[in-house]
Structure formats: structure tokens, C-alpha cells
Design a protein that fits this description.
single chain, 38% helix, 4 strands, 6% strand, 9 helices, two-stranded antiparallel sheet, mainly alpha
């Protein structure tokens, strides 16, 4: 999980939030001249994806809408950190509040319903601790060599373990993907050390590798980027 810094809400969503006679699923963006048919929902989704560097807010796999329709089994989903079905969401009008919105991957919901993860697995269950909108989400999670995600903060272990479980973040395919990232880092270290020999510098390698973990010039994070950061920092 990687910390997400929220930006400005799309203007069309702000209007929908104020006017409950409209819905962001169906109403179009009045100010979108390039594509006058685009809905407030799809406009919001685009904004959220850009804000997150095109990775899922929970598992960090790549998300994209390129060449896909909303019916596609890999199409990303708008997620509400405080679920829309809760009384809190209804009382505070959080269903169209941008600060309560994230975007997740498909979560296997249309591919393998027995092994859902992320939003599809969580459904409307309330989190006990983890929150990608809080910087602590990076500090309290670690990654084992087999790709497992675990709680690295003993003071909140039960709550964090619960959140990991409801998101099913240790689903085998996710573990395999994280394991590949970890093994790739170890291989890169070995190759660079053998290439440079006496000129090898652990700190210089870490510095360069961590720079590559920052968002790219095109606004994209590497998939599972926080796994790579974790592995590099403990190296």
C-alpha cells in the first residue's frame, strides 16, 4: 500500500456533491469540450487514477482504462474509503466527496469470484487501521521474501492483520507478483555488484534505485512500487 496525496476535486464532481438531484453515474460534464459525452463518474475516475500514479490504492498493481470498456473484467473501480452504505457516509454526503474516493483494481471480481481482493473482497466492511490516505500505511506494512504482506507495527497488529485479511492482500497471485519484484531487486544488486566490483557502492545503488521509485515524468508509479522501496530500504 502506498500513501496517496489527495488533490483538488474535479469541478463537475463538486457540483454533483452539492446538487443531489443529479448522479455522477449518468450526468455528463458540462465543461468537457473535448468529449461532451463524458460522465462525471468517468471524469472522476480519470482524476483519481492520475492522482494515484495509475496503481491500485490497495494492492498497487497497474490500473488502466486504455482500450477497455466499463464492462471489461479488468476495468478499475471507484472505491469509497468510508463505504457508501454506512450511516456516516449518508449523514456527511461522502458518496460524492472526493476526499473519500480512491480507485482500485478489478479485484478479481469478474474473473475468479472465489479469490476476490481489494475493494471486491472488502465489500462495505469498515477498516480498523489501514488507510492509503494516511502516510502511516507505508510505515506499518512489510513484505516477506515469498511476497507476503505483513504488519510491521506490533502496537496495531490485530487491527492491521484484520485489514490485510478483509482486502485479501495475501491472495497467491498478489504474493507471486510481489515476490517477482523482490527477486528482481536482488538480481539487480548482484549484477551491479559484479559489474562494478571494487567501485561498487551500496549507498549509491540504493539512492539511484529509490529515485526510480518516484513517480515518472508521465505521472506513473511502477506496479508494486512500495514493495521495491521496502526492499531497498532494508538492504
Amino acid at each position: 500500500m502506498k500513501h496517496i496525496e489527495k488533490g483538488q476535486a474535479p469541478s463537475a464532481l463538486i457540483q454533483i456533491n452539492k446538487d443531489k438531484s443529479k448522479t455522477y453515474d449518468n450526468d455528463v460534464c458540462d465543461n468537457n469540450k473535448a468529449n461532451p459525452k463524458i460522465t462525471v463518474k468517468s471524469d472522476t475516475l480519470k482524476s483519481l487514477m492520475k492522482e494515484q500514479g495509475f496503481i491500485c490504492c490497495y494492492c498497487m498493481q497497474r490500473i488502466s482504462t486504455d482500450k477497455l470498456t466499463s464492462a471489461s473484467d479488468t476495468y478499475p473501480t471507484i472505491e469509497h474509503y468510508i463505504a457508501q452504505t454506512t450511516q456516516e457516509s449518508k449523514d456527511k454526503n461522502l458518496d460524492t466527496n472526493y476526499k473519500n474516493m480512491l480507485v482500485t483494481c478489478h479485484g478479481n471480481d469478474k474473473k475468479d469470484i472465489e479469490n476476490k481482493h481489494c475493494d471486491s473482497s472488502r465489500d462495505s466492511k469498515a477498516f480498523k487501521y489501514l488507510n492509503p490516505l494516511n502516510k502511516s500505511c507505508e510505515r506499518v506494512l512489510g513484505y516477506s521474501n515469498d511476497g507476503s504482506i505483513f504488519c510491521s507495527d506490533s502496537s496495531h497488529k490485530k487491527k492491521i492483520d484484520y485489514d490485510i485479511e478483509i482486502l485479501n492482500l495475501n491472495f497467491q497471485k498478489l504474493k507471486d507478483n510481489r515476490k517477482s519484484v523482490i527477486e528482481g531487486i536482488k538480481k539487480a544488486i548482484k549484477l551491479e555488484r559484479n559489474r562494478l566490483k571494487d567501485k561498487w557502492s551500496k549507498e549509491q545503488f540504493k539512492k539511484k534505485a529509490l529515485l526510480k521509485c518516484e513517480i515518472s515524468s508521465s505521472g506513473i508509479f511502477e506496479a508494486f512500487v512500495q514493495v521495491k522501496i521496502y526492499e531497498l530500504k532494508k538492504f
